[in-house]
Amino acid sequence: MIDPTENAPDLWRDIFPWPDADSHKYTRGTLLIRGGASMTGAARLAARAAQRMGAGLVILAAPRDALPIYAEALESVIVRPADTPDEWRDLVGDARQPAVLIGPGLGRGAAQKNETLTALAVKRPCVIDADGLTNFAAEPETLFAHLHDACVLTPHEGEFDRLFGDRGGDKVTRARAAAREAGCIVLLKGAETVIASPSGQAVVNRNAPPWLATAGSGDVLAGMIAGLLAQKMDAFRAACAAAWGHGRCAALHGPGLIAEDIVAGIPKMLQEIAR
Prior knowledge:
Elements: E1 5-6, E2 30-34, H1 40-52, E3 57-62, H2 67-73, E4 78-81, H3 85-92, E5 99-102, H4 110-121, E6 126-128, H5 131-134, H6 140-146, E7 151-153, H7 157-164, H8 171-182, E8 185-188, E9 193-196, E10 202-205, H9 217-230, H10 235-253, H11 259-274
Parallel strand pairs: 1-10, 2-3, 2-5, 3-4, 5-6, 6-7, 7-8
Antiparallel strand pairs: 8-9, 9-10
């Protein structure tokens, strides 16, 4: 088996989606995020991260009762109501929104599970995180049947075991096998994060400091990946770039880090890789 590559900007810097003089918000890509009714901080963190990573327009769909919370906190994000399956389907089906993020703060239940399947049905680049994964713990085969090669799953170890079972073996072997089974990119989080593709390609990210062990850091990572997918970066290298950038932002900040600090550190990180 081919040894995994260590993640570094040289792997993806040449295709990083920098704007040029002719760029505007629509050419930079649109991202649709599904926000939940109660854990609103998760989707807000993801939305800010996607914006900082360069997504030109972020739209956040949420239940009407929660709209004021999202709208007040996210001045430059478009907030749309989505209380019914039809409202969510209409938003997801809009061809002007090339990427979707679902999971952070989504909530758990049959309705949320169906929202994830609706998002996958349009076959656009999609990041599935947190509750978007946990909702399929009892029937992972249903999720796998709807995934495609432009999807990125971002489980931590517990979510991974619930979806794929306790496979044994080292982390790279487990992530590769999971990516083959799911038919998409699997980013298995941890002190060493493994990004694997269905073809067996794998990259290990080792720049994550312990300060990342804080609530909301995974939501930021999901938003960073989705922001790059919105700009048409391929799913594997978008996941690699976001994982490295996430770790670098945390390292630049140091002790005392909270999730909001990762978002705030994205511009400085981007300045570094732009050199």
